[in-house]
Design brief:
about 270 residues, single chain
Length: about 270
């Protein structure tokens, strides 16, 4: 009932000589207060699953450019090196060695690859800081490879140290990029699902992008370490170090793109 209508009715009673009591004045106000209140609905699971943070578009460009520049660099450098270079047995480092025919191409590709990793790490805000630092460190080691080039024959301790550090950082960054709180919520959600249909799972467990969840990240890191073992076996025993190194380096340059795509598609 409208309050003005109630007040008008009280005024008409007074004009007609009807006695006005305190109860008759408060009755319209009580009827108004008895109306049900319309409250906003509580947010559902879709509200919590909405992306809180995403990545800028320039991170997508840097992550796409990294594997393309790497493959283009060693492909062009192989052509410039000549028919004596066997990509199945010879490593990529020989293409950036002093005096190599494609030295400037492979050196530029390594510097560009490292720059792309650093740029991607700067913009990958959904990842944990430790993982972003490891990815940026791997990019810095790629840029340091031309400073410590491999010799045309034999080995180099400094070059080997830079390669080992860079490989380790790029193999560790997937698991380091997983946030601990998200991993804990995911584990509790799995436990709740296993407990039965009556258990309630946390809606925040689905907030992490697919590429930053503990399962895919641990699998990617494990495959990279297995690839490192395959490279050592190919270098020391099988004489196929070139093929193993190309597969491993491409996988490590491609995984940042997978993570970025999982953040963009949310």
């Amino acid at each position: 009932m409208d309050a003005r209508a109630g007040c008008g009715r009280v005024g008409s009673r007074a004009a007609a000589g009807t006695p006005v009591t305190f109860r008759s004045v408060l009755r319209p106000v009580g009827r108004i207060a008895a109306f049900p209140r319309v409250l906003p609905a509580a947010p559902g699971p879709a509200f919590y699953r909405a992306p809180v943070r995403s990545v800028p578009r320039w991170v997508l460009f840097s992550s796409v450019s990294a594997p393309l520049l790497l493959v283009a660099g060693w492909s062009i450098a192989e052509v410039l090196q000549g028919p004596g270079y066997d990509p199945a047995t010879a490593t990529i480092s020989l293409l950036a060695a002093d005096g190599a025919g494609g030295y400037w191409v492979m050196t530029s590709a390594l510097i560009a690859l490292g720059t792309c990793h650093v740029v991607t790490a700067c913009g990958l805000r959904p990842a944990a800081p430790a993982g972003r630092m490891a990815l940026a460190g791997g990019g810095v080691t790629a840029m340091l490879l031309p400073v410590f080039p491999a010799p045309s024959s034999g080995g180099s301790f400094a070059h080997g140290v830079v390669v080992a550090v860079g490989f380790s950082l790029l193999a560790l960054w997937p698991v380091l990029a997983v946030r601990r709180r998200t991993a804990l919520l995911a584990r509790r959600t799995r436990q709740a699902v296993a407990a039965g249909p009556g258990a309630e799972a946390s809606p925040l467990a689905a907030t992490a992008p697919w590429g930053l969840r503990i399962g895919p990240s641990a699998a990617a890191s494990a495959l990279m370490w297995l690839g490192g073992g395959w490279f050592l076996l190919a270098l020391l025993v099988l004489d196929t170090a070139g093929a193993a190194e190309r597969v491993l380096t491409f996988a490590q340059s491609f995984w940042p793109l997978v993570v970025v795509l999982s953040c963009v598609r949310r």
